[in-house]
Amino acid sequence: MGDLFNLELITRSHITTCIAKVSEGPISEEHIVALAYLVLRSGPRLWISASNVLDNEALAGFSKHMEEVAEGVRYSLVNAGSHGYCLGWVEEVRKEFSKWGVTLP
């Protein structure tokens, strides 16, 4: 989906709808990985505001939301009872945001 967005074959609203649907509960590791890939493959263009700049507030909000969702994962196929795998994906997303020049709290 993110690649299709980058090729301008689908719109931002398609991506944001996907993010919203994947974020609905209950959440598993697969949801976290799907969110990460969706955001990473969509790239910074997904976060460009109407004034044509990166929307740091939206990026920070998404990062916080993803971390909260990852901490709430109840099902782990990789490491039962641990949030480490999911939080690792959150960290990958945060690293990519940093490469885009975004400073997150």
Describe it.
The structure is a single chain. The chain has 105 residues and is mainly α. The protein has one domain. The chain is built from five helices and no strands. The protein has helices at 2-6, 12-23, 29-42, 56-71, 84-99. α2 (12-23) packs antiparallel against α3 (29-42), α3 (29-42) packs parallel to α5 and α4 (56-71) runs antiparallel to α5. The radius of gyration is 14 Å and the shape is globular. The N and C termini lie far apart (28 Å). The mean pLDDT is 85.
Q: What layout of secondary structure does this protein have?
A:
Blueprint: H1 2-6, H2 12-23, H3 29-42, H4 56-71, H5 84-99
Helix pairs in contact: 2-3, 3-5, 4-5
Task: Quickly count the helices.
Answer: 5
| Number of DSSP strand runs | 0
Helical proportion, percent range? 55-70%
Strand percentage: under 5%
Give a summary of the structure in a few sentences.
With 105 residues, the chain is mainly alpha-helical. It has helices at 2-6, 12-23, 29-42, 56-71, 84-99.
